[in-house]
User: Which sequence fits this backbone?
């Protein structure tokens, strides 16, 4: 159902997928979806803000699932389980922010609400009047007499995600530019930052989500050849669980067909990429976490790394994921994240892959792989190193070509001097 600004519609589903969409291209800024869970127009705490650096609400009702690019049509998705939204929450604001430009430079900006079970479209709103805005409230899900409804909003901000978040009560730890197009004529007077234990203005609901231990950080870190490393220590991301996600798609023609069909053909051809990790502990123990041989690891005991499963779709919401328990970082000396092609392709040449490291605290770290020009079946992605005083992530993006009869795992071992003994294994 296509909607105009201000129109509303009943949401008959108990769970929905909210897709923020636009067309990519030269000069188009990156765009990110976010959600704010509100009581009387404000968040109860910073934990009621769901976005790329805080991808899941404590209640499990709202999750940021990430981006997909299909033939130049990009979507950034939020999953909202309306049945799990806490009774105190009156509305879920659905917002977008641009990175590196304005929404006047983003073609085809729209929001869709889909039934999570059937995929049927419930509502769609296309934004046609964006200009200098750097943040947008595109819509909201709200309760009305026991029923959930969706309203198309289309309200812009010139102050970016920081300004939008602040207006809804989020504490942001980064400098904010002055608002150019505030949505309301009056803004609240500045207040001094208060420690997380300070009492809120209004009494919290019986079971509020736990507030983050520090102000929300909106910064994203993208590693490149020119800037290949980042300190997690300086970013404040050295505790809790760090999720590592690998997602991919075919970005060239596959077997003579267009890329869209190529992706389907590739999946039917059993394209299987495996995310793996070599680890070295401070006591000298070494090993590998991988699906091969069911070496999935563990989070609460050595090696404090766990592979979630074995995915064949490349989806951001699933993809290949592993988790590193940074609460035990002092027992980790180095961790090398790498990916192998198990079956379905002869090299990475026709694949576009993106790696995201999401610390529980601190900024998300992401990077894309360069184009592969060699017959590589294994790629070193990132090296995490603990020097004792610093925990760093180094972008490797290094395609390796195994010698005849040498496994991809052994090839990575040789390249990085791990010095392990290898035996054949299978899934």
Assistant:
């Amino acid at each position: 159902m296509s909607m105009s600004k201000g129109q509303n519609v009943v949401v008959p589903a108990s769970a929905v997928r909210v897709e923020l969409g636009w067309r990519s291209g030269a000069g188009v800024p990156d765009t990110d979806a976010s959600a704010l869970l509100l009581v009387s127009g404000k968040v109860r705490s910073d934990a009621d803000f769901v976005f790329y650096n805080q991808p899941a609400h404590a209640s499990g009702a709202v999750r940021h699932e990430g981006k997909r690019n299909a033939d130049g049509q990009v979507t950034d998705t939020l999953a909202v389980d309306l049945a799990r939204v806490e009774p105190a929450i009156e509305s879920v604001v659905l917002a977008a922010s641009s990175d590196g430009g304005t929404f006047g430079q983003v073609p085809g900006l729209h929001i869709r609400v889909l039934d999570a079970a059937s995929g049927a479209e419930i509502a769609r709103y296309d934004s046609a009047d964006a200009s200098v805005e750097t943040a947008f409230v595109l819509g909201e899900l709200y309760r009305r007499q026991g029923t959930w409804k969706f309203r198309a909003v289309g309200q812009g901000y010139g102050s970016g995600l920081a300004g939008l978040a602040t207006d809804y009560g989020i504490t942001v730890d980064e400098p904010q530019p002055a608002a150019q197009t505030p949505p309301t004529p009056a803004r609240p007077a500045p207040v001094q930052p208060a420690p997380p234990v300070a009492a809120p203005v209004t009494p919290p609901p019986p079971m509020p989500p736990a507030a983050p231990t520090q102000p929300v950080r909106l910064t994203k870190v993208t590693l490149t050849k020119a800037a290949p490393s980042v300190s997690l220590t300086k970013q404040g991301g050295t505790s809790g669980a760090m999720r590592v996600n690998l997602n991919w798609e075919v970005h060239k023609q596959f077997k003579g067909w267009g890329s869209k069909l190529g992706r389907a053909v590739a999946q039917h051809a059993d394209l299987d990429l495996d995310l793996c990790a070599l680890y070295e502990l401070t006591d000298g123990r070494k090993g590998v976490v991988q699906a091969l041989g069911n070496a999935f690891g563990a989070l609460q005991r050595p090696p404090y790394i766990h592979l979630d499963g074995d995915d064949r779709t490349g989806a951001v919401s699933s993809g290949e994921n592993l988790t590193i328990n940074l609460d035990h970082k002092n027992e980790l000396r180095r961790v090398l994240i790498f990916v192998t092609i198990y079956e379905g392709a002869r090299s990475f040449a026709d694949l576009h892959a993106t790696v995201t490291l999401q610390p529980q605290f601190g900024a998300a770290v992401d990077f894309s792989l360069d184009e592969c020009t060699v017959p590589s079946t294994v790629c070193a992605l990132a090296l995490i190193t603990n020097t004792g005083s610093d925990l760093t992530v180094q972008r490797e993006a290094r395609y390796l070509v195994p010698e005849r009869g040498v496994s991809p795992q052994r090839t990575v071992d040789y390249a990085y001097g791990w010095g392990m003994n290898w035996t054949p294994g299978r899934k």
